[in-house]
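QUALITY CONTROL LOG
STEP: pairwise intake check
CHECKER ROLE: data steward
CRITERIA: each record must contain a sequence immediately followed by its structure tokens, with no blank fields

ENTRY 1 OF 2
RESULT FIELD BELOW
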Amino acid sequence: MIRGLVLAGGKSSRFGEDKALAHYEGISFLERAVNSLKLLGLHPVVVTRRGADYSFVRCPVIYDKFPEQGPLGGIYTALTVFRETAFLTLTCDMPFVTLAALSGLLEEKESREITIYSVNDKIEKFPGVYGPSALRLVRRQLLRNELSMRALLDASSEKKIIAWPGDPSEFSNVNRKEDLVLRR
């Protein structure tokens, strides 16, 4: 089984306010990500920090089991709550990613531990499909306090990397308000 996962647990310190609630083309980043996953029929889940209220997205919202551990903590939480489930995973701050990019991962995912894109020879950690077998690697990284997604990818012997033929800007994330202004 595969579901959608939106990681929305960051502090948004560089952005200055909760990025998940920021708007692009009239819709919040979080709603945009959730809606994209719904359009693909993936029954999305949002993982966030305690105290965040994202009930407006009308999908399950769960709290990080490992708060402030970055994307690894969110992936770990989803993989432990929804056992035997793979997740097409987005971060909430990727408002430019297209359905074509997301569906391309679904077409190629097979039953790998991790399926991701490379863009101009650079590995993109998100969007990506993280399968149930990735749980052991994620757990090991968290226990070692090694929070790097790069280290997780390096540790995986069952990953598939797909060369993205489209516009590389689809994989841009928004860290500062200026990033969003520059895109308009």
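ENTRY 2 OF 2
RESULT FIELD BELOW
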Amino acid sequence: LDGRPKVEVTSLFSIPLCMRDYDVDVEDLEKECVRRSTLDPGRVISNSGGWQSNNILADDNFFSEFSLEIEKQANSFAKEIELCQKVKLSNLWININGYKDLNTRHTHTNCLISGVFYVKVPDESSKIRFFHPSFHLMMREWRNTLKFNNYTSSIWDINPQKGRLLLFPSWLEHEVSANLSQENRISISFNIVGENH
């Protein structure tokens, strides 16, 4: 046995996720999100409770600088994972979740990359949970796994943090757990498409 080559474990399929933390003042961004919630009746898509704005286009005056930064990071992410095309921001929307409000499991259609930027995070209760594409099979076959890691986990939780940006493939299922704080949790979600979309 000593003469045999070492066994090497590798990943066949990987799911990329980009996380960047900004140390910036988001007070004006927070005020604008709250202001818009008084003007827009909002919509219900994945949100259970809370308020979600209607789509805000990338050329919105207030969000123009924010949109440019998102596009910059999305293009770096696309280049890093060799998505092989330039990308642009398609739309964004504001989420304000009060006590026990949440977002149910969903994906984003007709786009390449999706993401979220956390504006106000009163605590870390509203985790974003990502589901492995083979979640149901893994739960059936590997349900007794004792140690969870990049290879064996069927779910992955990430704590929200003020100023944190997350980018991920739009096809990756995700949900947001209930806000257990008495204060509102505010985030901005968005979709990224190919430049020629």
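INTAKE CHECK: passed for both entries
DESCRIPTIVE NOTE, ENTRY 2: The radius of gyration is 19 Å.
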